Amino acid sequence: MEKAYIGVFGMGVMGQSLALNIANHGYAVAVYNKDRENTEAFLKKAAGRENVTPCWTLEEFAASLEAPRKILLMVTAGKVVDLVIQSLLPLLDRGDIVIDAGNSYYADTRRRERELRERGIRFFGMGVSGGERGALEGPSMMPGGDPEAYGYLKELFEDMAAKTPDGTPCCAYIGPDGAGHYVKMVHNGIEYADIQLICECYQLMRFAAGMEVEEIGAVFEEWNRGRLQSYLVEITAKILGVRDPETGRPMVDVILDAAGQKGTGKWTSMEGLDIGVPIPTIAESVFARYLSALKEERVAAAKVFPWQSRAALPDRETLVSQLEESLYAAKVCCYAQGFALLRAASEQYGWGLRYGEIALLWREGCIIRARFLEDIAAAFRAQSDLPNLMLADAFAPALRQAQAAWRSIAALSALSGTAAPALLSTLNYFDSYRTAVCPASLLQAQRDFFGAHTYRRSDREGVFHTHWESY
Prior knowledge:
By secondary structure, the protein is of the alpha/beta class.
C-alpha cells in the first residue's frame, strides 16, 4: 500500500478539519486518535476519499508514513503535547518531522525543539488561526522550526492556507524554534484587544447614547465598508441583527455578560511584562474579561455606586463619527503594541522576523483579518526598522486627526459612567508615547530617596546619588 505523505495525530474538531483540508488538496493523509470513536466520526466526514488512511495503533500510524515522516499534532496544549511526543519517539527515525499545530506556549515549543533536535528529530511549532471553518477551508498558518526541514512542508502548507484575492497563500516560514507560536500568541493578544475595543464602542452607543441594537448593527455594517473593514466588525454587525427566537429580544441581550478565554491573551500580557514592552491595550482587554466574570459583584456594586450621567451627547452623526475615529486610532495603537512586542522578541531570540510579511499572513483566514493589514505591510516595506507603527506615514496623520474625537469619547465614557477601559488605556498609551518629558524623573528621585537606587542626569553622563535628607 502506498504510504501517506503526512499524518495527523488528534481527531478533535480542528484535527478533523485540517486532515480534510490536506486530503482535499490531493495529499495522502494518515489519521490517528487515542479514542477510536473520534477517528470513526472523521471517516464518515471523509467518506469516498481514497487518500485517507485510518490508523488504530501508534505502530500502524508510524508505519503508514513515507520517509521522512511528517506528523502534525492537533492535541491539547501543555502536558498532553509532551506525552504524545514521548509516545511517538520510539517509533520515529532521525530526520523525521513533528509539527505542533495547537495553541502551545512558545517557551514550551523552544524547549521541545531543542530536546528533539538533540535526538535527531525536527520539530515545528505552527500557529494556526481561523477556527474550525478556517482549518477546513484555509487558515492563516505561522510555522516556525528548522528552516531546512521546511522544504518538506512548504508546498503542503501553502496549499492548505487561506489565499488572498491575488492567490497569495497566507503562510510563510516565520523563523526558528518558537517563532511561529510566538507570532500566533501575539496575534491572539491583538485579537483580544480588537474585540474589546469593538465591544466598548457598542457599549457607549447602547448605554451612554441610548441607541437601539439594530441601529448599532447598522453602524458597524457601515464601518465595515470603510477603513475599519474586518472580519470582527463584519460579524459584529451580523450578531446585532439576530433576535432570540424564544423571546424576540436581541440575542446579545439574552447572552450572559461573562466572557471566557483560553489563556493566550494572558500569555501575551505576561510576555510584555517579561520582555519590557508596554502593551496596555492587550493587558487591559484581558483584565476586562476577568472583570466581566464578576457578574454578581458587578450587579451588587451597581446598586452601591449609582451615577447620574453628566455627559452632553453630540448628535448621532457626530457621535458615530467620533467613535469611528477613536476605534481606528485605538486599533492602530493596539497593532503598534503587538508589533513592538514582536520586534523585541525577534531581537532577543535572534529570530529575524519580517514584520510586513507577518501582517500579510493575517489578511485572510484568521480572526483579525482586515483591510488595515495591507497598510501595516506597506508601512514596514517603506521602513523596515520602523520603531513603532504609530510613527508610520500611513498612520501618523490619522492619529493626529483623531485626537479631538478620541478625547471627546474618553470624556463621554468618564462623564456617563460607561466603562471603556481599552479605549481609555490606549489613549493613555498614545499620550505617554508622545510625551517628551514624563514624570519618571520624579519617580527616579523617589527611588533614590528611599532606596539609594541612583539615577542618571539629563545634562551630563554618569550615575548619581543624592543624600536627600541633607537638603
